[in-house]
Amino acid sequence: MQNRIDELFARKQHGVLNIYCTAGFPELNDTLPVMTALQNSGVDIIELGMPFSDPLADGPVIQDSSTRALKNGMSIHKLFEQLQGFRYRISVPVILMGYLNPVLCYGVEAFCKKCAETGIDGIILPDLPMAEFETEYKSIFEKYNLHFIFLVTPETGDARIRQLDSLSKGFLYAVSSSSTTGKDKDMKDQRAYFERLRGLQLKNPVLIGFGIKDKATFDAAAAYANGAIIGTAFVKALENGQGIEDTVKKFVSSVR
């Protein structure tokens, strides 16, 4: 069976919208309602955050959402319970984003097997080193048809970008600047970096993340890549909104 991420990029090469949400936020059982509302609003990819106590790449807003989700009782075990049968309702690609420690505690192969059983398409673990992935875990992810997605930054050299691209499947996650999520950035300031990525003629599609928050920043990023990823701005909207369905619909419409 072809991976849903590959199916998506086979038919859509431009303007791909990936939205991040934290599992178990705002309330423990909001995971599936949020995901369903995102699909109904026309999002192309759902990136589902697995809450962790020390999310190194995340800014204060997503950190706070993780803390709240953990207090709500969210865990990897609980998440897989919530995701049981979700493919009867949701057809868009779904990626789990998190950190290595909880996955190691769960067991990497057990985690990948459960992902495959429930219908997950890809995994992002920013703190899993490239060499360790290649020697220890690559074969496990491939066994379960899970696309592992690496991140690159403006400081990543061309040779390493090519290495990360060769190991990634689905797409390459281009961090817009070397900071945590949610920082305000002018996409024009990163033009040289984005053009450098485009000039490398990478094998994977590229999605730009960090600092994408509205239509202007989404369009600016999407002009240089296959699309972009929104996280912090959406989590803020969920926290401040009145009702999941209306909040999600309004937010996605404002970006599109």
How would you describe what is shown here?
This protein has twelve helices and nine strands. The protein has 256 residues and is α/β, with parallel strands linked by helices. The longest helix has 14 residues, at 130-143. It is globular, with a radius of gyration of 17 Å. It starts with a helix and ends with a helix.
Identify the notable features of this structure and list them briefly.
9-stranded parallel sheet; alpha/beta; 12 helices; 256 residues
Brief summary:
With 256 residues, this protein is α/β, with parallel strands linked by helices.
Specify the oligomeric state. single chain
What order do the SSEs take from the amino end to the carboxyl end, as H and E?
HEHEHHEHHEHEEHEHEHEHH
- Which bin fits the share of residues in helices? 40-55%
Strand content: 5-15%
**Radius of gyration (Å):** 17 Å
Lateral arrangement of strands in the main beta sheet: 5-4-3-2-1-9-8-7-6
Report the strand count.
9
* Overall SS class: alpha/beta
Number of helices: 12
Sheet with the most strands, sense and barrel status = 9 strands, parallel
Cα separation of the termini: 30 Å
Rough outline: globular
Q: Output mean pLDDT.
A: 92
Poorly predicted runs are: 179-183
